[in-house]
Amino acid sequence: MIKIEGVSKSYGNGAPALSNLNLEIEEGEFVFVVGASGSGKSTFIKLLLKELNPTEGTIVVDDVNLSKLKSRGTAKYRRKVGVVFQDFRLLQDRDVYSNIAFAQRVIGASPREIKKNVARVLSLVGLSEKYRSNPSELSGGEQQRVALARALVNKPQYILADEPTGNLDPENSWEIMKLLEKINEQGTTVIVVTHNMEIVKAMNKRVITMKKGVKVEDSKGEEQTDE
Ligand code: ADP
Ligand code: ADP
């Protein structure tokens, strides 16, 4: 669970990028974070990745205060968090398989585990046939699915997606969102920063709206009446 209490972040000049943010994200939630450019969404993501520390307040993830983590603890914490970016950030000089295997090697997985886990995530994103392709041979939608597979291969508890559909056409955007939903249904907590209000409305999830560094709305999706 993520507990954000009284978090502000200033970059030193001008108004704070985030002001007195308070929110909790429970295990297994799917949350959209929306807001105009400059509203603090990237700052929020960077704080959750501990690329930045808050100027004030605390971020506690699964009972660990991120501000207290040293480099070793930070490395361990980051294994819990898979990240997906707008621009995919795949390594262009190696194939799909190696792009994903690389993340496993970093955490010291055995060759056997690597094979098994890469095959598992490629199948999950529907790209088992493409493991020998280079990113340059893939469409944008396929590249983002590879990036998602890479984010998932170490079995993270959390997925953070920063404008994951920003470079994709509507059809591929939907495909990525449906995959994120499926991953969430399998138990991963998913946080998605996006501008795509059409998708946000249709998905019917919790939506946190930011404006000039302030949380102005936090609305649950409508209850699904399946009980
Ligand atoms: P968003 O992701 O919603 O566009 P950001 O978190 O990037 O918002 O930015 C929030 C505010 O913080 C903006 O006013 C932006 O100009 C400012 N900001 C972001 N990064 C920096 C930085 N490295 N140095 C100074 N100001 C920054
Ligand atoms: P290297 O560092 O030598 O590239 P990798 O661990 O990345 O080693 O991969 C070894 C090779 O195994 C890959 O290039 C890939 O083509 C191949 N491979 C074997 N089995 C599979 C599989 N089930 N799915 C994908 N690739 C596989």
Automatic annotation (TrEMBL):
One of its GO terms (biological process) is cell division. It is a peripheral membrane protein. InterPro entries: AAA+_ATPase (IPR003593), ABC_transporter-like_ATP-bd (IPR003439), ABC_transporter-like_CS (IPR017871), ABC_transpr_LolD-like (IPR015854), Cell_div_FtsE (IPR005286), P-loop_NTPase (IPR027417). It is found in: Cell membrane. One of its GO terms (molecular function) is transmembrane transporter activity. The keyword Nucleotide-binding applies. Pfam families: ABC_tran (PF00005). The keyword Kinase does not apply. Residues 2-227 form the ABC transporter domain. Keywords: ATP-binding, Cell cycle, Cell division, Cell membrane, Membrane, Nucleotide-binding. GO terms for cellular component: plasma membrane. Its main location: membrane. Homodimer. Forms a membrane-associated complex with FtsX. Belongs to the ABC transporter superfamily. Part of the ABC transporter FtsEX involved in cellular division. This is Cell division ATP-binding protein FtsE. The gene is ftsE.
